[in-house]
């Protein structure tokens, strides 16, 4: 039986809990405008900085609430009042909050520390000799883990992002891609990719790190997603989240399993027996506790926002910059352009703005704490 046929049978066997692509049909359909309780204007007051900061795509900014939570935690730790069980409660609240943010149930969410660690777990689960298709130029944390499986005969085929959907065949076990490309800000045509994957019986892994927080993301549309929350969500670095359908979870090996992946966490601290959680928690990586303290208010803020409104705000600023630079409007929160010698990035930096350079391009990002004045400052720096 072909790999595609095996995957089709696996999906059919899980029709009670998964859709035709293996995604969770019990997903929470979240309508942002009706779920929002914090306005964009109110959210902007929660930041102590932001003017001239055009680098949410590199490192997000914390809110006042995140700063306060981490400060209080550090002080409690210093007094000897920090307890592991309390941290565990925080992790579970973040898990639940993130599940709500991306439209899945919390049983479909695993926690981790870095994108590459979670992608590495998926990569280690690719069958020997199977094919993985990736877009050319994607972030290395979504590329290297799969290239590292060459010793098992895993074949990685890299194609242009625009050709990703058309490149899938019945021999493609997995297609892995970033929803928003880090270097350019280009949005992948995820609808076309997922439609092609359904036809070929290919599993889908989507990195939403450069998307979640500035635009609505429906994680249930994919077999698995990864998000490192320290960028657009403004959480501390070290808080990564993984969503997975039950059908795809059955194909994955919990290679990072430790005590935190146990069915009963506190009864899993010692061997020799191993009893892992029956749901996505079996893929958990033990959390760096203080980071999750800061993540809780960050996730709570963005799940309280109308992310369609946040997207419209950010895209309007990006388009305004494009207009000023005589570039085509891109409809993106990340705007980048060729800057091989770094001259434009140096101009932005000299003007006191925080931007970044990637893959020979200058790169700026607009988030909810930015406004038209930030666009004007960037244009003034770039057009002396």
Question: How would you describe the overall organization of this protein?
Answer:
With 384 residues, the protein is an alpha/beta fold. The chain folds into 2 domains: 223 residues, Aspartate Aminotransferase, domain 2, CATH 3.40.640.10; 76 residues, Aspartate Aminotransferase, domain 1 (Alpha-Beta Complex). 36% of the residues lie in helices and 13% in strands. The strands form 2 sheets. Strands 1-7-6-5-4-2-3 form a 7-stranded mixed β-sheet, with helices on both faces. Strands 8-10-9 form a 3-stranded antiparallel β-sheet, covered by helices on one side. Helix 4 runs antiparallel to helix 11 and helix 5 packs parallel to helix 11. The longest helix is centred in the first third of the chain and has 19 residues. The chain is globular.
List the helices and strands and how they pair.
Blueprint: H1 3-12, H2 32-35, H3 40-44, H4 64-78, H5 84-102, E1 109-112, H6 115-125, E2 131-135, H7 144-147, E3 155-159, H8 164-167, E4 172-178, H9 190-200, E5 203-207, E6 224-228, E7 240-244, H10 246-249, H11 289-303, H12 307-324, E8 334-338, H13 343-350, E9 356-358, E10 361-365, H14 372-382
Parallel strand pairs: 2-3, 2-4, 4-5, 5-6
Antiparallel strand pairs: 1-7, 6-7, 8-10, 9-10
Task: Write a short abstract of this structure.
The chain is an alpha/beta fold.
What labels describe this entry?
384 residues; alpha/beta; Aspartate Aminotransferase, domain 2; Aspartate Aminotransferase, domain 1; 2 domains; seven-stranded mixed sheet; three-stranded antiparallel sheet; 36% helix; globular
